[in-house]
Amino acid sequence: MADEVLGIDVGGTGIKGAPVNVETGELTGERFRIKTPQPATPEAMVAVMGEVARHFNWHGRIGVGFPAVIRHGIVRTAANIDGSWIGTNIAEMVTKETGCAAIFANDADAAGLAEMHFGAAKGKSGVVMMITLGTGIGSAIFLNGAMYPNAEIGHLIVRGKDAEQRICGYVRDHDDVWANEKTGKHLTEYFHELERLLWPDLFVVGGGGSKEFDALAPLIHIETPMVPAQMLNLAGIVGAALVGAGIGK
């Protein structure tokens, strides 16, 4: 089908994919997942992405959400993947492995696209910021639906320290508890800085923080409206498919 794209969501523990109808956001096949190889080197991970494509006997377009800054198909950062990725033309490698045209985007950007088109931010104009809270802070920025790619605002400096390290490090040290007063205070300071610098119209909170949103949100004292992500585990795959379809560029 012309409106079907294979979406692949690459994570630190798993690489999963499914064909997606990019008009409706619905998966048209059962999600397929393979554990992320360790070490997560380019050759090993590309082989797994190829295995996902072959599982679906795929011959069309592929979109991939990848945990790094991607510029013109080339990996520029490696915060949570093997350092040998930096400088690798991942789009070229996966296209060669699968025989299909592959387009890549940062994983938070892909998840944000899914929320903009089918989730919590559907139909929203102005500046929308998707913030994913997990082992790190992912971020995506949209202006009237158009994406500003590779925004690494999870690394904003707050009180002289990288916000991701400050917030996520505290949560890790306290058994992944997002909804407590201390976490709320750290997040209030972080979101307030985003307000002060970028003046968003809406925050969409994804990741682990979204699962405890009802308890966490009252602890964050900011002016900008804040809503939980709706696409949950499907956001990465659906957003990757949108990337593959050239939507949001």
Average of pLDDT: 94
The amount of beta strand, in percent, is 25-35%
H/E element sequence: EEEEHEEEHEHEEEEEHHEHHEH
| Structural class by SSE content | alpha/beta
Shape: globular
Q: How many H/I helical runs?
A: 8
Q: How far is the first residue's CA from the last residue's CA? A: 22 Å
Helicity level, as a percent range? 25-40%
**Would you count the extended β strands for me?**
15
- Our Rg estimate from Cα atoms comes to 17 Å
Low-confidence stretches: none
> For the report, how would you describe the main beta sheet?
6 strands, mixed
Structure keywords:
six-stranded mixed β-sheet; alpha/beta; five-stranded mixed β-sheet; globular; single chain; 8 helices; 249 residues
In short:
With 249 residues, the chain is of the alpha/beta class. It has helices spanning 42-55, 90-98, 107-118, 163-173, 181-198, 208-211, 213-216, 235-244; strands spanning 4-10, 14-21, 26-27, 32-35, 62-66, 70-71, 74-75, 102-106, 127-133, 137-143, 146-148, 157-158, 161-162, 202-207, 226-228.
Describe the structure.
The chain is an alpha/beta fold and 249 residues long. The protein contains 8 helices and 15 strands. The protein has helices spanning 42-55, 90-98, 107-118, 163-173, 181-198, 208-211, 213-216, 235-244; strands at residues 4-10, 14-21, 26-27, 32-35, 62-66, 70-71, 74-75, 102-106, 127-133, 137-143, 146-148, 157-158, 161-162, 202-207, 226-228. Strands 1, 2, 3, 4, 5 and 8 form a 6-stranded mixed beta sheet that branches. Strands 11-10-9-14-15 form a 5-stranded mixed beta sheet. Strands 6-7 form a two-stranded antiparallel sheet. Strand 2 (14-21) and strand 3 (26-27) form a beta hairpin. Helix 3 packs across helix 8 and helix 4 runs antiparallel to helix 5 (181-198). The radius of gyration is 17 Å and the shape is globular. The two termini are 22 Å apart.
